[in-house]
Amino acid sequence: DKAGHKHFMSKEIAEQPTVIGEAVRHYLAQDGTSIELPDTDLDFTKIERLTMVACGTAFYACLTAKYWFEQLAGIPVEVDIASEFRYREPPITKGTVALFVSQSGETADTLAALRYCEGKADKILSVVNVAESSIARESDVAFPILAGTEIGVASTKAFTCQLTVLLMLALKAANDRGALDADAIADALSKLRGLPSVLNTAMEAEQGLADASRKLAEARDILFLGRGLMYPLALEGALKLKEISYIHAEAYASGELKHGPIALIDKHVPVVVMAPKDGLFDKSISNMQEVMARGGKVLLITDKEGAVEASEGAWETVVLPQVDPILAPILYALPAQLLAYHTAIAKGTDVDQPRNLAKSVTVE
Ligand code: F6R
Fold it and tell me: Which end of the chain has the lower number of beta carbons within 10 A, N or C?
């Protein structure tokens, strides 16, 4: 049932404020100001290294969470693609906790990577949507993301719910390890509780994104740029676009631009720049200006402050609500998804069943 939507993907994009709200509530303690995890003997103070493994969009959720676990909780994090991890057979050192992220919980490579860690890692954790899946069953602790059934092949609400749960785990780890005090946690949680309404407001940017998408639909190649927490979001935006619109899209960390990809820039290659007004904004904008100076057409996705400072000369600017930089990845997933969706609509491709792709990849 598409609930009045033309596609499951648009229904699932629209559901995000609701399901994210549910995920937040699930991990909130009764008092509403602290985090409560399922009953487990998991001890964040004992973790020396966190190894996160996944495929595709779930891998980008891990890349995002790396910033959170490192910056908020001070835990060294390593992130890997499951198909690489499983055959490289990396040494798992004492104090390592392994965390697997999967919507379906059945992805063959992720499951094999998990099995490789059995008996080697101190603990095996998973962040899954399907609670009765193989990955959930074979973990010591499975954290549900509560996104509800995801039917569209391109993952949307599962990604933002993965991010939500991973952020709450990072906040809990930060608190337990003494890196953030109770007040800081309560403050972060109150912002997380407010996120559904921020996302609803952000939906107002849909028309602007749809207009920009009609222009993107004419491109053969598109670049996505982001720094810090926006780098994995740029990767996700490029993946989503490739999957459903079949336009070649690549993402780079903005700082990598001059190490190669800037050679691609001309007026035929639109560049999507994701840059909220955070601590890295000036650096991202200076990379964006390098693109514009070479005739590149920039679609800038930012907030009000960012738009005032930097939208001059941009081809298009999409303005999102202002949020705490820590929460920005969850918010900026929305324009990444909507751009892909509307570009696919403009091209007339099959949004829910893109060619050559399967919802659950149970063979390697
Ligand atoms: C992208 C997408 C895929 C999956 C990947 C992992 O939109 O859906 O990249 O994210 O196949 O799947 P799960 O999360 O089920 O392990």
Answer: N
